[in-house]
Structure formats: C-alpha cells, structure tokens
C-alpha cells in the first residue's frame, strides 16, 4: 500500500529545483530478457514484486544480463538510483569459462555499483579465480549490503573479500511465511503436475519418477518450463501416453495451478515448484543441483534427491507439512537500507 508520505516525498523530489535533473529511476538487470527458461520469468516476477513494494513511486528500466552492454546502455544505467540483479544462478567462479552474466574487463572498468538481490552460485565450484574476483569487486556496490540466495553463495563471496553480504534466500521464497505455508495442504492431491530438465537428463531416474506419479495420481500433467523439456519428455511418451501436456507458457501453468484445487507438484524444476507453493499447492522438488540442495539446508525447502524413489513415494503418500524457515529478519535488514 502506498503511503501519503511516500507520495509527498517523491513529488517534492521532482519539484525541487536542485534536483530538477534527477529521475527516480531503478535499474533491474533482468535474466528473463532473451531467456529460454520460464523459471527466469518466475524469478523476474518475484524481483519486481519486491522492488515495487520498496520503491512504489519510482520508474523501472530493464537491462539484460545475457547480452553485453554498450557504452550507451551504461550511460543510461548511470542515471539509476540503484541497479539490482536478482534471484538467479548468475555467479560463477571462472568468468573466462562460464558466465550467465555477461561481464568482462570493459564492464569492470566502467564500474556499475550493482546490488545483488537473492542471487546464487552456478553449481558447486572452487574459490573464484583472480579474474572473476577482480570483476565482481569492481562491478558490485562496495557499501550497500548484498543479498544472496544461500549460505554457499555468501561463503564464496566472502572468500574473495566481498564482506557486505547477507543470506536472505531467493526473492521467490520471501512471501512463503509460516502463516502462508499453513494454508498449503499436507495430504496428497488427486492430480499432479511434474517437470523435467532438458540440460540435466537422467532417463532411468526420471522414468521411475513418472511411473510413480502415474501409479498414484488420477491425472498427471507435464509442464515444459525450458525450451527443450518437451523434446526430452518424448523419450517417455510411449510408456505414458495418457499424460496431459500443459502449454509452455507461464500463464498456462498459473491457470492450471489456480483452476485445480486438488493438485500437487513434483519435479526437477526448482522454480516450477516454488511457483506451485505460491499458488498453495503441496510441492516436492527433486534435487538435481546445488540450488535446491542448498535451499533445502537453509530454509527447509521440500526437496528429495533424484533417484531416492522410496523417500519420494513416502512423501507423496503420507502427510507432509510445509514448514519453511524463511529468514525474515535478514530480508528486512537488507530492505531497510533503501528506506
């Protein structure tokens, strides 16, 4: 809710002659631009939800993380009050070999004062090398407290001397408070929607997961979150011909989650599972990488390791309460810097 004092402050800012050239502009380095993974859209929704609450009277401008930025774009970025990059696997230990965020020497020389917002590390890796550490130290804001997705990411940044960092969890989880989670059913639904991951295939274990779902649910839906997920699913189509495919659109997934009351989520897509939790659905995320495993450690996200079919079966069939440990005080500490 926008307070009258917030509105008055920003109108005064715009009317002030001394601030006539200052625009209340917030930059968002957005991984959802040019993405082929709808999980990035889920992350972007959460980032904007939180930033809109934090800066209700500001304008927002998007910048891509997957493309190199031009000098002209950087001039625009310099006009922002803050620039945030949010909630994704955007950091890694060797930018020369792999980087989701297209940063290089030119970006480091420009220095951007970017603020991290619930970001995470790409896979388990060694300490960042000198090249990567130098770029991150130049690009990231040196005074404002950065927010990261998990403790592993925080420790990686601490290892290169970036100490102004706090573990808040991913912004996609910030609204999953105890009161909200208490409304999520603990017992099995009649139907289930599942996901697969095109870039992390395990045909034997994924087939066992699907077989289990077909055995224990009346109706089984498949939602392709990534661009090649449906191609991977074709490997199982002959064995499970009655599975219904949801169109590869976020609005189609949301519609399914909203329209079916007795529906569970099971799958390897982390943010597909978190989206389902947001829609009040009982969810079991299959852990296939560091993201889900670290979030399970930190906030007790409901994760079962891939291949652990007995545990998965038990969690499907027996009551399972959603009791997440969202670091609310850390989130509020991070947000309070911008008040």
TrEMBL record:
<dbReference type="Pfam" id="PF04230">
    <property type="entry name" value="PS_pyruv_trans"/>
</dbReference>
<dbReference type="InterPro" id="IPR007345">
    <property type="entry name" value="Polysacch_pyruvyl_Trfase"/>
</dbReference>
<dbReference type="GO" id="GO:0016740">
    <property type="term" value="F:transferase activity"/>
</dbReference>
<protein>
    <submittedName>
        <fullName>Polysaccharide pyruvyl transferase</fullName>
    </submittedName>
</protein>
<keyword id="KW-0808">Transferase</keyword>
<feature type="domain" description="Polysaccharide pyruvyl transferase">
    <location>
        <begin position="37"/>
        <end position="290"/>
    </location>
</feature>
């Amino acid at each position: 809710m926008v307070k009258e004092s917030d509105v008055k402050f920003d109108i005064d800012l715009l009317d002030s002659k001394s601030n006539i050239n200052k625009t209340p502009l917030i930059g968002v380095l957005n991984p959802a631009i040019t993405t082929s993974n709808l999980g990035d859209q889920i992350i972007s929704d959460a980032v904007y939800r939180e930033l809109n609450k934090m800066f209700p009277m500001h304008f927002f401008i998007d910048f891509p993380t997957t493309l190199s930025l031009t000098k002209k774009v950087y001039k625009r970025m310099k006009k922002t009050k803050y620039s945030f990059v949010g909630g994704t696997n955007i950091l890694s230990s060797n930018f020369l070999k792999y980087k989701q965020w297209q940063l290089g020497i030119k970006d480091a020389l420009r220095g951007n004062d970017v603020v991290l917002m619930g970001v995470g590390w790409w896979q388990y890796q060694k300490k960042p090398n000198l090249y990567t550490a130098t770029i991150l130290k130049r690009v990231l804001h040196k005074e404002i407290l950065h927010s990261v997705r998990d403790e592993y990411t925080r420790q990686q940044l601490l290892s290169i001397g970036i100490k102004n960092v706090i573990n808040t969890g991913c912004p996609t989880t910030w609204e999953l408070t105890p009161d909200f989670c208490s409304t999520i059913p603990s017992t099995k639904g009649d139907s289930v929607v599942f996901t697969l991951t095109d870039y992390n295939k395990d045909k034997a274990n994924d087939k066992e997961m699907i077989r289990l779902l077909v055995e224990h649910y009346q109706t089984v839906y498949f939602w392709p979150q990534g661009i090649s997920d449906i191609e991977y699913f074709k490997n199982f189509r002959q064995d499970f011909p009655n599975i219904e495919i949801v169109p590869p659109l976020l609005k189609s997934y949301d519609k399914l989650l909203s329209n079916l009351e007795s529906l569970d989520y099971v799958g390897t897509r982390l943010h597909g599972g978190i989206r389902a939790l947001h829609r009040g659905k009982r969810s079991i995320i299959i852990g296939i990488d560091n993201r889900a495993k670290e979030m399970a450690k930190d906030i007790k996200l409901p994760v079962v390791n891939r291949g652990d079919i007995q545990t998965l079966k038990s969690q499907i069939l027996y009551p399972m309460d959603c009791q997440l440990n969202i670091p609310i005080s850390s989130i509020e500490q991070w947000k309070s810097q911008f008040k």
